[in-house]
Design a protein that fits this description.
This protein is an all-alpha fold. It has one domain. About 85% of the residues lie in helices and about 0% in strands. It contains 15 helices and two strands. Strands 1-2 form a two-stranded antiparallel ribbon. The longest helix is centred in the N-terminal third of the chain and has 57 residues.
Length: about 450
């Protein structure tokens, strides 16, 4: 099967799945917004934004490093997967404890309504359970990604989200409070994790019984650290504005911006899906070149072989760039002109139209940065990326701290676009410099 066909088929699976999941997520957002209004919807955003930080922490980039190991030793796929799963479950339990303990000390000012109220903190305690379920799901994605079988990942998320929506509708009909609706998220994540495990077990006939190699855990943590830092910076970058809004502005403003951002981020999974399918192809090209060079002639022909492999990857980058550029401009047009429909959720959400329009202008940056990020990861440039993402995060936090207290959610929307634009330019320059180095070699 040609690489281009595998990439296309897996991307199509994920697009179809995302359309279904996006529809479910939209209905969940719609139901919560209509049922609880701006203030309580803002509390929902505070809860989910806080816990989402720990979702990416539990990811920590382990999949990318373990995938490289499996590419080198395909016969040890089962061994690597089960050690990854064990490591992540242990890590998730630790992060759940940290999430709960940190939530206790989050500030709140009852007079101004700024900060994290007791209701929000209890919601965080409930939803923190899903950190463990997320750990199981993303570990299973290693096998799906390695074998380009994202259809199984898609079905797992569809099943979990569908159950979550059904439970939410039932709880709303019963007239429950916002906190009770959080259990719909927990149940949905449990279903997703279960379906993903079953998918791996049936597809690869994997039995969950193997020795735990703690020395492997140590090596993987060390190797993954630069990539994990990148993922951490990236997630904080995405969530820091909502958290700073919670600290310096009212919960109502968090709800206004939260609805706009929830809708804005829906199509952002498309470039992630595409690059998830592309990344194994990049690694295959890289390792294929290494194998062809042989043991004895590596030192002699390393530069030419590396140049050949990375030139192949650069062709993939160019194709991905043009496809995602086209899609990003389509979404700018759609979101800019359809954003007034937000007022139909509830009239008070008319205030979300402007921030959504501002956010939509940054689609090209958000669609294209993953292309260059994953190319540089495939080239082994994790340390460089850690520095780049760290600097971008520092700039984002600084701008948010300076402008959010005065200008609120409008500042959040503008800074989001500026920050991603700066990151996009730096990644392009880094990729260009790496390409020039290959050509000179």
């Amino acid at each position: 099967m040609k690489a281009s066909y595998k990439i296309a088929s897996n991307t199509i699976y994920q697009i179809i799945g995302k359309i279904v999941n996006a529809a479910i997520t939209f209905f969940i957002t719609l139901i919560l917004a209509r049922s609880f209004g701006i203030r309580q919807f803002g509390q929902y955003i505070q809860i989910t934004s806080y816990v989402a930080i720990f979702y990416l922490l539990v990811d920590f980039g382990f999949n990318a490093i373990f995938l490289q190991k499996i590419q080198k030793q395909p016969t040890k796929e089962n061994f690597y997967f089960q050690n990854l799963l064990s490591l992540r479950v242990f890590f998730a339990l630790f992060l759940t404890l940290v999430a709960v303990l940190l939530a206790v000390i989050l500030p709140y000012n009852p007079l101004s309504g700024q900060g994290f109220s007791n209701i929000v903190k209890v919601g965080i305690f409930i939803v923190s359970i899903t950190i463990l379920m997320q750990a199981v799901f993303v570990s299973c994605n290693l096998i799906f990604q390695r074998n380009l079988r994202y259809d199984k990942s898609v079905w797992a998320t569809i099943g979990g989200n569908a159950i979550s929506l059904a439970v939410l509708v039932l709880l709303i009909r019963l007239g429950t409070a916002l906190l009770w609706t959080m259990f719909s998220l927990v149940i949905g994540y449990i279903v997703t994790a279960f379906l993903a495990l079953r998918g791996v077990e049936i597809f690869r006939r994997i039995k969950y019984e193997t020795e735990i190699d703690f020395s492997l855990w140590k090596r993987m943590i060390v190797e993954t650290l630069p990539l994990g830092i990148i993922f951490l910076f990236n997630l904080i970058y995405f969530r820091v504005d909502a958290l700073i809004l919670s600290l310096f502005r009212t919960t109502e403003e968090v709800g206004i911006y939260g609805l706009a951002y929830k809708i804005f981020e829906t199509p952002l999974v498309l470039p992630i899906f595409l690059m998830n399918a592309v990344y194994p192809i990049m690694l295959s090209s890289k390792f294929k070149v290494s194998r062809q060079s042989g043991i004895h002639d590596v030192a002699i022909s390393h530069s030419s072989k590396a140049s050949s492999g990375q030139s192949s990857n650069l062709r993939i980058v160019r194709k991905s760039f043009f496809v995602l550029s086209f899609l990003s401009f389509i979404f700018i047009i759609l979101f800019f002109f359809l954003s007034p429909l937000l007022s139909y959720i509830k009239p008070e959400f008319e205030q979300s139209i402007l921030p959504l329009r501002i956010l939509s202008l940054s689609f090209p940056f958000f669609f294209l940065t993953p292309v260059f990020m994953w190319f540089l990861i495939a080239c082994g440039k994790q340390k460089l990326l850690a520095i780049v993402y760290g600097a971008s995060l520092a700039l984002n936090i600084l701008l948010n701290l300076v402008f959010i207290p005065k200008y609120g959610y409008i500042a959040s929307a503008v800074i989001t676009g500026i920050g991603e634009g700066v990151l996009f330019i730096i990644l392009i320059l880094s990729t260009w410099n790496y390409y020039k180095d290959i050509e000179l070699d």
